[in-house]
Every structure is written in C-alpha cells, then in structure tokens.
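Here is a tokenized protein:
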Amino acid sequence: MGSRLFKVIFSIFSLCCLLLYIAGALTAYIPSPAWWGVNVIGLLFPLLVPVVLACGLVWLLLNRKMALVCFLVLACGIKTILATFALHSPKNNVSNGMEGLTILSYNVREFSALYKDYWHAGPDYKDLLQPLNADIV
C-alpha cells in the first residue's frame, strides 16, 4: 500500500513539474506583458530543470515509460535550457576581430582618484582608452 501511495503522489508531483516545465520552456515565445504569471513561470524555469531531471531519474527506477516521458519533455525544452544556462563552448581569444564585438565600460569618477584636478586639467580620456581598441565605449 505504501509503495502504491508513493507512486500516486510522485506521479501527481511529476505531472505538475512537467506542466510547469513546458510552460517555462514556452515563455521565450510568449510576450512578457501578456500576463504576470508567464514571467513567474519563466523565473522558475532554471529551478524546474533539475527537478524534472531528478523526477526522470526516480522514474527510471520505478517505471521506464514515465522516465522516457520525463526525458522527452526535458529534451523538448533544450533550446530554452541552452539559452538559460549558456551551455556553449568558451572562446579562448578575447580579440575584437571580425568575429566578435568588444564592449568597454568605465567609471569616470575612478579617473578622479588618479588625477587631482579632474575637472580642469584631467587627461584626455580618449587617449587612455585608445589602446584598449574597444568597439563600443
């Protein structure tokens, strides 16, 4: 009786998690001002990924068909998973060649710590930033 009760409760929990996961995977295609609940489900999506994975692993021990359903639903949201967790290979070069874009931001107030007469006789900041060769400053 206890094992059957666990399976019923766990299947209801898994079904709720799978439905929320599907809704979270679809939030990328729904405009955000449509309804505030869409944004909340989108915020919960990174938490639902390991929960659905854990449900699939538990179902792998209990019922292989349900495990297959969990892993298929997980695979359907792979595009959103890759966008959420940024699972891509890092590039080793940080040059601003033709394949990339380098963005530089700086705090002008930090320059005032280096130069006492910041407002009147400060250096030309373009000369300081020129060697960094940034595309956008």
